[in-house]
Design goal:
This protein is of the alpha/beta class. Helices cover 42% and strands 14% of the residues. Helix 5 crosses helix 15 and helix 10 runs parallel beside helix 11.
Length: 394
């Protein structure tokens, strides 16, 4: 028996196709986009980093899109968000218009901010984002899709008695699905988020954005299965909502940019290997499905939006700080300290006035969280929206 969610979705598709007099009178269906992932989908960019976007002539025009005439972050008029996450160790659900505050805390953003702003301006109909994101989660275990089967632990996990409990496997996949269904259950549940939702127009499930990867990247056992797990994930989500052509974006991990192996820092992390698994998932998905279902699953790389220059300052601060502590403790000589500074191009090891200014204006978190850069998250969120709109045209 088709449930209430599917009835609403099927009705919405009919509305979009102009079927029936009710649809013609009611107008366009509300577009619904699901955003899911781990900490970088949650979002670490503090609004205090927004002014730095204007320091770069190439990105300065973005300020006109994300700030109002008073210079304050905009609040969308017709884009809304329902967000399930964890804050301070507690399950948290937030609802309202797209604005600053749907990231790690009330002053931060994730990709949803500029994604919602761009959709609000590009579309005539209302937009609802349903975002589920929790930090420190893997696709191999936490978001494991049903068709991937049971989790098979590595030898190290078995020997270390560190096998994930059965109830943990797939828990956040199930929570994601549950929250989407709960949000779209009926008119009353939707109006908790979108007060003026028009039930006659209905809604259309229009796309899915996935942005996750760090925890799998840090585990070789998980890397080996990521491509297959991602293919299962896409298939299961589409099957769950009976949308076999649902536009789907895999946001590719871009910490360290597009060529991680060229960097001087964190050389031991297999970022490049992991990125390949995400691109491969998209390519192999199309190869495995029927022709009519191809071309609407794409990878969008976050690497081009990563601030490499800011990362250089991050590592200079981090490494010279460590060396200075060793120097003060007598564990490193002055000569060795200067030798290391020269080796990494850090000069005398002191942070310059310009570096401090750049750091203070542009960063608000750790490197694995894209340095909490508003410039990164605003550009990437907009890129996701632009690519989604292109997918919908196909």
């Amino acid at each position: 028996m088709i449930d209430k969610f599917r009835k609403a979705a099927v009705f919405s598709v009919a509305v979009l196709l102009g079927v029936g007099s009710v649809a013609s009178a009611a107008g366009k269906a509300m577009k619904v986009y699901i955003l899911a992932g781990q900490s970088n989908m949650q979002g670490s960019a503090h609004k205090s980093t927004f002014p730095a976007i204007g320091d770069d002539p190439k990105t300065a025009p973005l300020l006109q899109e994300i700030l109002n005439e008073k210079g304050e972050p905009v609040v969308c008029e017709n884009a809304w968000v329902a967000y399930q996450t964890t804050r301070n160790g507690e399950d948290t659900i937030l609802r309202g218009q797209v604005k600053v505050g749907y990231g790690f805390d009330d002053a931060r953003i994730g990709p949803e901010f500029s994604f919602g702003i761009h959709m609000d301006r590009a579309l005539e109909e209302p937009v609802l984002l349903i975002k589920t994101a929790w930090g420190g989660k893997s696709l191999a275990v936490d978001f494991r899709p049903p068709s991937a089967g049971p989790y098979l632990p590595s030898k190290r996990e078995e020997e270390g008695d560190n096998v994930p409990a059965e109830e943990k496997v797939g828990h956040y996949y199930r929570e994601m699905i549950r929250f989407v269904r709960e949000t779209l259950k009926d008119t009353g549940s939707i109006r908790k988020v979108v007060p003026d939702y028009d039930e006659k127009s209905g809604f259309e499930l229009a796309g899915f954005v996935w942005f996750q990867g760090w925890n799998d990247m840090c585990n070789r056992h998980h890397i080996e299965q990521y491509t297959d797990n991602m293919i299962h994930f896409i298939s299961d989500v589409r099957k769950e909502f009976e949308q076999p052509k649902l536009p789907f974006i895999v946001g590719v991990l871009g910490v360290y940019g597009t060529d991680p192996d060229s960097r001087r820092f964190d050389k031991g992390l297999p970022v490049t290997d992991f990125r390949k698994t995400q691109f491969a998932a998209v390519k192999q998905y199309d190869a495995k499905v029927a022709p009519e279902f191809r071309g609407n699953v794409i990878a969008v790389d976050s690497g081009p939006f990563y601030e490499l220059a800011l990362s250089e300052i991050y590592w200079k601060r981090r490494m010279t700080g460590s060396w200075k502590r060793r120097l003060n403790d007598g564990e490193m000589t002055k000569e060795k300290y200067l030798e290391e500074c020269t080796k990494f191009g850090f000069g005398d090891g002191e942070i310059t006035v310009e570096e401090k200014r750049t750091w203070d204006r542009s960063s608000s978190n750790a490197e694995y969280h894209y340095l909490g850069s508003g410039k990164t998250f605003v550009r990437f969120g907009k890129a996701l929206a632009e690519e989604m709109l292109e997918l919908e045209k196909k």
